[in-house]
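hiii, so i know i said id send this last week but things got crazy w the move. better late than never?? heres the sequnce for the chain we talked about at the cafe, plus the structure i predicted for it. fair warning i was half asleep when i ran it
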Amino acid sequence: MATSSSTKPQLPEAVDVVVIGGGIIGASTAYYLAKKGISVALLEKGRIAGEQSSRNWGFVRQQGRAPEELPLIMESMRQWRGIEKEIGDHVGFHQTGVIYTAKNDRDIAEFEAFVEHAKQHQLDSRILSESEMRSLVPGIRGPIKAALHTPSDGRAEPSIAAPAIARAAERLGAHVFTGCAARGLDLKGGKVAGVVTEHGLIKTSAAVMAGGIWSSLFSGNHDVTFPQLRIQNNVFRTTPGPEVFSGAIWADDVAIRRREDGGYTVAHGREADFHISPNALRWFYDFQPAYKHEGNALRLRLSGQSLKEFMTRHHWSLDDTTPFEATRVTNPKPYKSVIMETFASLRRTFPELKDVGIAESWAGLIDVTPDAIPVISSVEQIPGYFISSGYSGHGFGIGPGAGLATAEMVTNAPSTVDLSPFRLRRFADGMPNPFGGAA
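okay and structure toks below
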């Protein structure tokens, strides 16, 4: 992969499609475009999977998805199952099942509603009784009334999956550049004619924004409104320990995923941190239903991250140094108090893991939309501009399927899944919001 922000790379003069953002979505989009024989350049301001695509939990799950996402994640699961053989590289995927525990009737009601949707897609999700759950995971402790289990779900290794897919794209002819920020779109007659990078122009008639938390900022510089906020999740990995379950378990105040190194990736199952920012004020009305629904799970923070967002420029010319060059890799500090609270929950919920230690901790910023459903859409006001972002913490597992769907959309090929629920226009045309009101 061409790399280094200090050495000017040899950019292609022109390609059919430029993909901006080297996470799991961007890498997968570039791969499926290259597989179709489309010339493509993948631009990453930092390193491949440097942000949330390597910092997530590593769940590859169909269960718990919004009904709109089910066809897309089921397609993604088909891709995951064969991806290592297809690309000839390791991504750490294992079909091990995923379990969500229920500690009260509200949780059970949510699981029952999901199972009804799952039945329509012949998905193997089912509700386990407490005794069935404890038989499957004998060592688990705590108040459990039931559980949701999907045996066909799995896990993969975030730190290696997107880089492996990006390498596969490159082997198929894609141009992959790291340390190369996209500054903006070159427009001719209101249409995409190229992408301006910090190292020069790449001519193209199609540009895909797959930049995660940066997508709204990039789009806003071209007066494209994309409501998107950031939520911080604090995560750690343990030293190797006994296998309590081969897959992934969400147990309210702790979520774990078995790792290939014999340890576990661990996070708080429900709570996350929300840094107050200008966009939080700008889009307060849009996100109000979601905040009312999830407010108890959010810890409000006025922090250095907040200050940084208040100081970030929202408009620039294409010959300016941009915020994307100022922050190559977003690397928020994890809150130690949250890490230690979650570590205590881990040992309390899984006594078999009482002797594991914390090997490493980190934090990542999740991009969220008002309805917690991604945008996979053309942008009406700028022909040739597409957005594939806002995956709201669901992007890793859905990544290969979303990449395929995005590639189909950009090339105007028949779509594997219906993308109408993911259109950008839904935030303006009154599509129902699952949290109440309209999206």
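btw Residues 17-97+152-429 form a domain with the FAD/NAD(P)-binding domain fold (CATH 3.50.50.60). thought thatd interest u
miss u guys!!
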